[in-house]
């Protein structure tokens, strides 16, 4: 149920100039009553906490962006440039040594139950994301937050983050995620009983009076809940922290609407209205939203449509208004044939790759060979030599993008015209330029591995393009003695450490999607870990301490030349360990109905959702 996994920090260049947003005028709703827009993504929503390891994927992050992005201190436009969101709050670096940043919420911002967004929410975000607080929190990444080891000081709607070392991408830290009082409610549902009863009554009556009773009950509950969250973090109350962490990790994972409203409290223009597994998620304009940009549509439905042809047929018939996916050449032709649609093409900040799992007892794990690291390395190298990267690009990507080429770096893309040539010249990718079946056989002979080698290979079920890639890889690998076993399934279970502490698949193919232009953050994917809950995106079980140290140093290095040096060293070691291989940069395709205005393609995640508040019905005006 997940698409491209999110890279919290990996980027091609440093964040650019900041653009101010917000004029300070009183909020006026521009929602057009009765309007609804139908969009589509190729995977469905399955978790509301996109900061957790279980919830970290683009499909979830799209929904969270729609519901919560108004309560952030900055966001990326499609230039892309980082835009300061002064409608919500301010942040200021007050010291370089130690690096100290003050965050303030200046808006009268509230959660969808009317409870103010405040310091308790910000403090819990640090606790959950830093890896420095007990309880078993399972964040998708700790990058940046992990450098804040001292418990931050908080004041009324304020928090101060003091870094042990100067974090190079500090402006991308956003100390707000899911609500503190909502998480406490999910951890201690008995204490939430009065609020739950008020919510249930409102759900039955839909009356304004009952909604007010619900928000009043929520505010009363939140007063005590927030104090308990803050106290638990400041005092190190392991019992409460463990309950909070368990709720934070698990209680926000769902594919149908949960009974407790605490599981879907939003902080922006829209509230979560309904969701159905692998079908759709619908959000509705938030009546309590009074800060930031007003949306125009009353409802937005994001449909999960894996088949691109089906999606475009729905758009052509008027059942769908916006679609973006992983196209093939036939899909591009179909999109261009729709007279009532606008087609936008571009390069996305996402790249396809294959990962090999090295800790699951499979063919790429040294444990399979009695701990013989060298033997397992040769088997991995042999397999990577069989992957027909150029054939994949030529047959699947070039018809969409005539100048498409194979990607030969893990840590930067070709868009970084300074670093990409440096890394690709030094990293050892030249050894995998062409398919080398004889070389693969020779490596297996050297390793003393004979006979057919089974490789459990995962790709997201229903994804046409990935299915095509699997067939090409399977046919090529078979020539060297590898038998690929199709382990495709739609739910990406291997990415949830609570469900699969160890990835059961020997190889996986998916994309990393950048959310920012950060320099650091690659440790999310390539750093060593002890606790599976802390592995972030390292589903391979990969551990090279030198790589871990280099990427940790990168996170605190401001000098551009030194950054390039560290990237080159880490990149070269990753290739030498033969645990992953990049294939291509994503070609972007966004198709929208001419009945909708304001749709603009975006290279970073959240893709075309980035300016949802600008979407408007053609020839319509707010009432």
Provide an overview of this structure:
31% of the residues lie in helices and 20% in strands. It has helices at 58-68, 119-130, 180-187, 193-205, 208-235, 238-251, 308-316, 329-336, 373-386, 389-397, 419-426, 437-447, 464-478, 523-526, 545-554, 560-577, and strands at residues 5-7, 18-21, 32-41, 74-76, 82-85, 89-96, 99-105, 153-155, 158-162, 270-276, 280-285, 297-304, 322-324, 341-356, 453-458, 482-486, 507-514, 580-593, 596-597, 616-617. The longest helix has 28 residues, at 208-235. The strands form 4 sheets. Strands 1, 3, 10, 11, 12, 13, 14, 15, 16, 17 and 18 form an 11-stranded mixed β-sheet that branches. Strands 6-7-9-8 form a 4-stranded antiparallel β-sheet, with helices on one face. It has 623 residues and is α/β, with parallel strands linked by helices. Helix 15 (545-554) runs antiparallel to helix 16. The radius of gyration is 24 Å and the shape is globular. It has 16 helices and 20 strands.
Basic shape: globular
DSSP helix fraction = 25-40%
Main β-sheet: number of strands, strand sense, barrel status?
Answer: 11 strands, mixed
Proportion in β-strands: 15-25%
Alpha plus pi helix count: 16
Brief summary:
The chain is an alpha/beta fold. The protein has helices at 58-68, 119-130, 180-187, 193-205, 208-235, 238-251, 308-316, 329-336, 373-386, 389-397, 419-426, 437-447, 464-478, 523-526, 545-554, 560-577; strands at residues 5-7, 18-21, 32-41, 74-76, 82-85, 89-96, 99-105, 153-155, 158-162, 270-276, 280-285, 297-304, 322-324, 341-356, 453-458, 482-486, 507-514, 580-593, 596-597, 616-617. The protein is 31% helix and 20% strand.
